[in-house]
Amino acid sequence: MNDNSGYKILAVDDSPINLGIINSVLSKEDYIVFTAENGPKAREIAEKEIPDLILLDIMMPDEDGFEVITQLKTNPKTSGIAVIFLTGVSEIDSKVKGFSLGAVDYILKPFHPKEVLARVQIHLKLSAATNSLVKAQAEKLKQVKKAQKQLLILPESLPEANFGVSFNALDEAGGDFYDVLPVSQNIFGYCVADFSGHDISTSYLTASMKALLKQNCTHLYQPQESLKMINEVLVEILPDGKYLTCVYARLNRRSRQLTIISAAHPPALFMPKNGEPKFIKLDGDILGMFKDAVFGTKTIQVNSKDRIFLYSDGLIEKSNSVWTNGLDELLKFSRQAQDYPISEAPEVIKNLMFKNLKGPEDDVVIVGIEV
Amino acid sequence: MTLKDYAENLGLDEEEFKELTQLFIDTTKKDLEKLKKALKNQDFKSAKEASHSIKGASGNLGFMEIFELASKCEKASEENNFELISNDISKIETLTIKLNELL
């Protein structure tokens, strides 16, 4: 059995004899061979068959090999196909030009059929290795997404915190983050943060953020102090240009005191059970950029069944609306979601916010808290 | 050398090689006609194309004598020098006829 079956090779040469030689040596090894005697035909076959490799003669009348490869490389369908040039010994300059246009190798003419076979095999192996590298990296990214999800606490694993969440990561390594942590028996911390950028380092940083919250949001510290310490560490560890916005709510369920602190994050929404909902607008610097950052904070008295919603800007920033429209919509839809239990309310709000769109265009997280 | 020897050198079957040789003879006849006409008209571009075509095919099939002669013709066309070409053309013709006899 031969494992070459399935690989497609396109040979392009104006000489039918050369095509015949290439065809016969490659067919014998079970490659699927296509031949073209000129550039336009070659491009037509390349687009239709997407061969694994193209053997391309340079010297052809009308459309020469350079023109053919240039067109192949500018067509998204064919730009990824490896091209090996067939070139005469006297055409030294053309080898250099061939490489600069994206060829992976050249074969000197007159060629020996066995050399053609050997080069074809080497380059197929190389592209197979590259493809598997790409697949392996994609696989790793999927693992990152999984790990990132595992970092996120679910309402059922901390029922005492009485919260609900809607979390949508747009790509493999999203920039949104939330966490809920027990500070003491009756005090809970709720955090929503949004890192600039969506890449692997962002994902690594969400893990760091979780650890920092755990270390710093303890019974001993007030939210101001916690965030200040977290900021100082982040200034040290964040790469240049990387920062985050963050809102942290600390709820004492016994004294019914709620403290909100914001680092340039969209305003938290406070929905008293009896009364008009309102946004808690706070000024504050971003997190992780300046050592002496200042964060806006506010403490309010809350009552049983009051609700607080923390969310990321993806919820209110939609391409077809402005920020303030997003806030108005959020106010409206959170009222509509009032009769749903807190475990479902965030998802209901998200669906209402995006009902006329295909879905969120950015990462979106909503954390709903009920006193 | 027999056609079988040529075929073995290239790692091809004899039958396949015979087919390619027949194709070579047919195309070379056309190229030689083109070359003669180009010589008559002092058309260096056509002469270069025709000799390049013979050169490429003969080289890859291992017909090295023809390859050398066609290379000379191609070079001479590039240099716009037709003096020696007609002699080479008839040599190529003779060799092609000999090839035909081997089939």
Give a quick rundown of the structure.
The complex is a heterodimer of chains A (371) and B (103). Chain A is α/β, with parallel strands linked by helices and 371 residues long.
Question: What features would you describe in this structure?
Answer:
The complex is a heterodimer of chains A (371) and B (103). With 371 residues, chain A is α/β, with parallel strands linked by helices. Helix content of chain A is 37%, strand content 24%. Chain A contains 9 helices and 15 strands. In chain A, the strands form 3 sheets. Chain A has a 5-stranded parallel β-sheet, with helices on both faces. A 5-stranded antiparallel β-sheet of chain A has the order 6-15-14-11-12, with helices on one face. A 5-stranded antiparallel β-sheet of chain A has the order 7-8-9-10-13, covered by helices on one side. In chain A, a hairpin with a 4-residue loop joins strand 9 (244-252) and strand 10. The longest helix of chain A is centred in the middle third of the chain and has 39 residues, at 113-151. Chain A is elongated, with a radius of gyration of 30 Å. The model of chain A has no long low-confidence stretch (mean pLDDT 85). Chain B has 103 residues and is mainly alpha-helical. In chain B, helix 2 packs antiparallel against helix 3, helix 2 (14-41) runs antiparallel to helix 5 (85-102) and helix 3 (44-61) packs antiparallel against helix 4 (64-78). The longest helix of chain B is centred in the N-terminal third of the chain and has 28 residues, at 14-41. The radius of gyration of chain B is 14 Å and the shape is elongated. Chain B starts with a helix and ends with a helix.
